[in-house]
Amino acid sequence: MAHQLIVVLDFGGQYSHLIARRVRECGVYCEVWPYRASLDKIKNAEPLGIILTGGPKSVYAGKAPRCSADLFRLGIPILGICYGAQLVAYLNGGEVRAADVGEYGRVELTNLFTAAKLFEGVEQNTVCWMSHTDFIARVPEGFKVTARTPDCPCAAMENESRKIYAVQFHPEVVHTQAGTQILKNFLYHICGCRGDWSMTGYVARTIEELRQKIGDKKVICALSGGVDSTVASVMVHRAVGKNLTCIFIDHGLLRKGEGDKVEEICRSRFDMNLIRIDAGERFLAKLAGVTDPEQKRKIIGEEFIRCFEDIGKEIGKVSFLVQGTIYPDIIESGLGDSAKIKSHHNVGGLPDVIDFEEIIEPLRLLFKDEVRKAGIELGLDEDLVWRQPFPGPGLAVRIIGDITREKVAVLQEADAIFTGEIEQAGLSRDINQYFAVLTNMKSVGVMGDSRTYDYTIALRAVSTVDFMTADFARIPYEVLARASSRIVNEVKHVNRVVYDITPKPPATIEWE
Length: 512
Ligand code: XMP
Description:
Blueprint: E1 5-10, H1 16-25, E2 29-34, H2 39-45, E3 49-52, E4 78-81, H3 83-91, E5 95-108, E6 127-138, E7 144-147, E8 156-159, E9 164-167, H4 179-190, H5 199-214, E10 219-223, H6 227-240, E11 244-250, H7 258-269, E12 273-278, H8 280-287, H9 293-315, E13 318-322, H10 327-330, H11 350-353, E14 356-360, H12 368-377, H13 382-385, H14 405-424, E15 433-447, E16 450-463, E17 471-472, H15 477-490, E18 494-499
Parallel strand pairs: 1-2, 1-3, 3-4, 4-9, 10-11, 10-13, 11-12, 13-14, 16-18
Antiparallel strand pairs: 5-6, 7-8, 8-9, 15-16, 16-17
The structure holds xanthosine-5'-monophosphate (XMP).
The site of xanthosine-5'-monophosphate (XMP) has 17 residues, from loops.
């Protein structure tokens, strides 16, 4: 049964995906579509409501992204947020201008029209999150201002009879105190949603659909050990059991003990068919002497494909190939692609070398946090579903310079100590990614009475929302001290530990 749908039209705002996630958290299914989506497509999908997102441009600028003014005549409830609010004003005959001073950060709302449906249950002087320089200087005919701030004459407006609403602030951002309430009011009281989106329902329905679709045919899934491919394979396994075969290529560049963990989960916990290929030697041979990061990625990407080619020959034709694609991978951006900083080779070329009839992507509608919920729903452990992202090329991009088996072992040990200390200190959920890097630098040290000349380990830990920007995590000194002292004491060939305090940008999260 199809879910009720809310369409989020993306005008390139930095919070567009966050809006969609919040809507789903309210129990309503929604999709992010580019602002160029045609009116026909929108009408055919029969959404119960449309949300217009923020965006970086001025609505009156020559090349500003705009939707058709006819969107407002479809009779579907609309909520414009930030740029979206200004677009509502602009396209309906109001006026938007640049203010002398912008509003950024926490601001108190005043003159809130508490009888407005959008503000049901919201208190006067509630705090919201603003991020704008342009403002709605004159509201369109038929619209009424429903909130202000000391600097903004129209922080919210509505045309109740046409069910068009606009807020200059960001209800999706946690700093907007009544943000969730406002979104719920829009979804439930204005659009009439029933709240038919839940992870339990989704998982059960998807398993049933997979069962119908796959029947007695053969399916294979490439496991990386990451959250997405693990959840996808467990879901398919729940549907078709032994008709699924998982293939796990261990390139020898995983974290300490990780390969065995993946194997244990698949075999012992879930009794899955698993083919594990220990290809460490093969990968190391190809990487010998290579120092350029992009070259390393390319070699690993290609070697994956070669491994799968070999397996493909062995297993012959299969009906389905499972991929752990998730929603952010497939959302079309409203404003086109940005510059590529690093090429992310994972198992991208797989479809070309495995002989299969169809790709199955059971997570293609889910955001990352929903994938985690689905994992829990399927009986996976918390620590597995909360795993941090790990790059496809693994430790290869955390060993600066050439890669040897010894260096991999040094890094695995140091990384296990650092990550263990973070977990021990109860910081693992607060820090979004943390790991050790083996720099290519040696320096002088003293151990006992002897001079040493050994490697420096760099520790990296970041706080981030989307991994596009990040700041270094403010780890307590005691935790850093313990990790540092254990690493130099317990890991051979390391005599110095440094902590990376660079944000992204200008640095990236990984060192390569
Ligand atoms: P950077 O280093 O670009 O990393 O700031 C952003 C996020 O992407 C991860 N990353 C990768 N993931 N293949 C991947 O699957 C890769 O080649 C790769 N390089 C970086 C990185 O761990 C961080 O979470």
